[in-house]
Amino acid sequence: MPKIGTQEEMLVVSETRPSVLLRLKDVKKEYVSEGQPVKALDGVTLDVAGGEFVALVGRSGCGKSTLLNLSGAMDFPSSGEVLLEGVNTSALDDAGLTRLRREKVGFIFQSFQLLHTLSVVENVELPLLLAGVSGARAQAMERLQWVELGELAGRLPHQLSGGQMQRVAIARALVHSPRLVLADEPTGNLDTTTGDVILKLLKRIAREQRTAILMATHSLEAAALSDIIVRLRDGVVAEVVHQ
Length: 243
Description:
It is a single chain. The chain has helices at 7-14, 64-71, 94-104, 120-130, 136-146, 162-174, 192-209, 220-223, and strands at residues 3-5, 20-33, 36-49, 53-57, 79-84, 87-88, 105-109, 180-184, 212-216, 228-233, 236-242. By secondary structure, it is α/β, with parallel strands linked by helices. The protein has a single domain, classed as Rossmann fold. The strands form two sheets. Strands 1-11-10-4-9-8-7 form a seven-stranded mixed beta sheet, with helices on both faces. Strands 3-2-5-6 form a four-stranded antiparallel beta sheet. Helix 4 crosses helix 5 (136-146) and helix 5 crosses helix 6 (162-174). It starts with a strand and ends with a strand. 40% of the residues are buried.
């Protein structure tokens, strides 16, 4: 049976969990929309350990994308702390933030966001080239082989199916061996069968590489393949389910 706990109970449990990679502590995020204050997140506390596949579920506007952006240091809390491997992201300067994102975080998007003028392997190696890493082509090919697309390395994105493009995007997200992968509706543009392939691949990444996966999804079917479901409602954690 799934284990269900309140946010307070899960915080107590998390203190004894090994290898906590991402920790959000009483995180609030507020912004102004059309002159009115909006609370996107209102006191969220959450831990994600290495090797865990965590699904964020809830209605549009519940705070899923905001939580992903804060976790990847693409945005910062109005109050509270976001700690990635013990480092408070709000305390980093621009150089430190760039280094953290390039070395520790991978991003997967619903729309794939591949550069259509670059080949498959060039898309995958791009993050390493931007970071000045040597041996980028070999690492890119290794990741493409891992997602079973090595034979398509020379193709352009428009020559691929949607599922193949998403696997290329996963290879790109993994090319620098990140500790945390953030996936925003990664199956949203895919049919059910292809989406299941992508979800099983994400689960395999968590299991084999001990990478933490944090996925935002509207799909309860997609969330069912995760290890932990975090239900968000109006910017707060309503429920945490261990499967």
